[in-house]
Write a structure and sequence with these properties.
- It is a single chain.
- This protein has 224 residues and is α/β, with parallel strands linked by helices.
- It has one domain: P-loop containing nucleotide triphosphate hydrolases (Rossmann fold, 3-Layer(aba) Sandwich).
- Helices cover 48% and strands 18% of the residues.
- It contains nine helices and eight strands.
- It has a five-stranded parallel beta sheet.
- Helix 2 crosses helix 3.
- The longest helix is centred in the last third of the chain and has 17 residues.
- The N and C termini lie close together (9 Å).
- The model has no long low-confidence stretch (mean pLDDT 92).
- Bound molecules: 2'-deoxycytidine-5'-monophosphate.
- The site of 2'-deoxycytidine-5'-monophosphate has 14 residues, from helix 2, helix 4 and helix 8.
Length: 224
């Protein structure tokens, strides 16, 4: 890869696999930019819900995606997300928005509308791109592609702890069922389904601690 081309590392996988946390850790460690592509789908869902738009209406939802007025900024250790100038950092993480994001992400026109916006994140010195189709559709020529996964139960347990820490009360059985429903929709959709790129390295984090996964990822990045 030439020196003036930003290094792109794609990290794809299902929700709760730990890719959000690991992507942040890697970006910070390497001094790279970070693309949380899931946040973009969440923002589209939230913006559509705020306008009472039916999430199954592909044309209207794609128009929202095309005109999304969003700003990402760093506030201390965390990332601040603004939609039309309003702080929606926490709002986009609610379960109802997770479900909405999975629905809007199934529309090809919505995915197409977000493509250039995502690619614009690739700037020097490099980018950690976190999502579902980073290695297959958005950055197919990235030199390092990682697919991070874990069992549905392990992922539900992690999500449960995250939501609990935020004071959201949620039933564990419902969480496992929701995760399975989202996995099913994300991996079966016709456009950019959640599948590992042919040249991705697959890491299963069910029984590996975060520090070990981090070390394995860093070693993979340094190989390229
Ligand atoms: O990673 P996340 O949980 O924030 O993603 C929210 C939803 O967006 C998820 O159900 C799948 C979808 N998504 C997608 O289809 N493609 C991406 N690159 C990122 C997220």
């Amino acid at each position: 890869m030439s020196n003036n081309k930003p290094m792109v590392v794609t990290i794809d996988g299902p929700s709760g696999s730990g890719k959000g946390t690991l992507s942040q850790m890697l970006a910070k460690h390497l001094g790279y930019h970070l693309l949380d592509s899931g946040a973009l789908y969440r923002l589209v869902a939230l913006a559509a819900m705020k306008r009472s738009i039916d999430l199954t209406n592909e044309v209207l939802v794609a128009a929202i995606a095309q005109n999304l007025n969003v700003e990402f900024s760093v506030k201390g250790e965390s990332m601040l997300v603004l939609l039309d100038g309003e702080d929606v950092t926490d709002a986009i993480r609610q379960e109802v928005v997770s479900m909405g994001a999975s629905k809007v992400a199934a529309h090809p026109a919505v995915r197409a509308a977000l493509l250039d916006r995502q690619r614009a994140f690739a700037r020097a010195p490099g980018l950690i791109a976190d999502g579902r189709d980073m290695g297959t559709a958005v950055f197919p020529s990235a030199p390092t592609k990682i697919f991070l996964t874990a069992s549905a139960e392990a992922r539900a347990e992690r999500r449960f702890k995250q939501l609990q820490a935020k004071g959201e009360v949620i039933d564990m059985a419902k969480l496992v069922a929701d995760i399975r429903e989202r996995d099913e929709r994300d991996s079966k959709r016709a456009v950019s389904p959640l599948v590992p790129a042919a040249d991705a390295t697959i890491i299963d984090s069910t029984n590996i601690g975060i520090a070990d996964v981090f070390a394995r990822m860093l070693a993979l990045i340094k190989q390229n």
